[in-house]
Amino acid sequence: MSTTLPASSAADTPAPNDTPLVGIIMGSQSDLKTMSAAAELLRQFGVTYEITLVSAHRTPHRLVEYAETARKRGLRVIIAGGGGAAHLPGMVASFTTLPVIGVPINSVTSIHGLDSILSMLQMPAGVPVATVALDGAANAAVLATQMLALTNARLADVLEKYRTSLKDKVMRTIEELRKGGFSDD
Q1: How far apart are CA 112 and CA 117, in angstroms?
Q2: Residues marked as binding?
Q3: How would you classify residue 112: left for phi > 0, otherwise alpha for psi between -120 and 50, otherwise beta?
Q4: Where are the beta strands (DSSP E) in the chain?
Q5: Ramachandran bin of 113, using left for φ above 0, alpha for ψ from -120 to 50, beta for the remaining angles
Q6: What is the DSSP string of 112-129?
């Protein structure tokens, strides 16, 4: 279900069955550790995606091409992760009308992630970036799936089952605590 976007792809008509619906992009390979959580959850949900590097600073022409061709290629949502000043999500949002979900990353060049968070939250009117928590790639995948589920009953069902599994996990933990199985080792 995952694919990697080639260096240059501007196909007009994507293949209908395996077309990625979500693009996962990040500014550098070091972001992959965080962003792989989004890919894993989308895979579990059965949502097709592509994952690649698009650097706002080192490959600006690739950024423009990626964002401007995203809809034509079949994408419906873009998840963009970035650390430091994190220009990637906002710049992508400026070149597409698709929803962009920003994932601020607490990178080595970051000020404890605060710079990344603010660069995504403080977008000008008309160019929004939906922003999740610091290193919150999993929630970005859930949000992207919720957007897709607005018109996809199968995904709506998948999300219901996912929420139920979260509740069940908490209830199992509560039962373990009642039985004295709590250990803080």
Answers
A1: 10
A2: 28, 31, 58
A3: left
A4: 2-3, 22-26, 49-53, 77-83, 100-105, 130-131
A5: left
A6: TTHHHHHHHHTPPTT---
Binding residues for substrate: 28, 31, 58
Q: At what angle do helices 137-149 and 32-45 cross, to 10 degrees?
A: 30
pTM as predicted:
0.87
pLDDT in tens, 26-69: 999 999 999 999 999 999 999 999 999 999 999 999 999 999 99
Judge whether 49 and 2 are in contact, CB under 8 Å: yes
Between CA 108 and CA 114 the distance in angstroms is: 12
State how far the alpha carbon of 112 is from the alpha carbons of 29, 135, 138, in Å: 19, 11, 19
Paired with 52 in beta bridges are 25
Q: Phi and psi at residue 104, in whole multiples of 5°?
A: -70, 135
**Please, which residues bridge with residue 170 across strands?**
none
Q: Amino acid identity of 139? A: N
Residue 51: CB atoms within 10 Å: 21
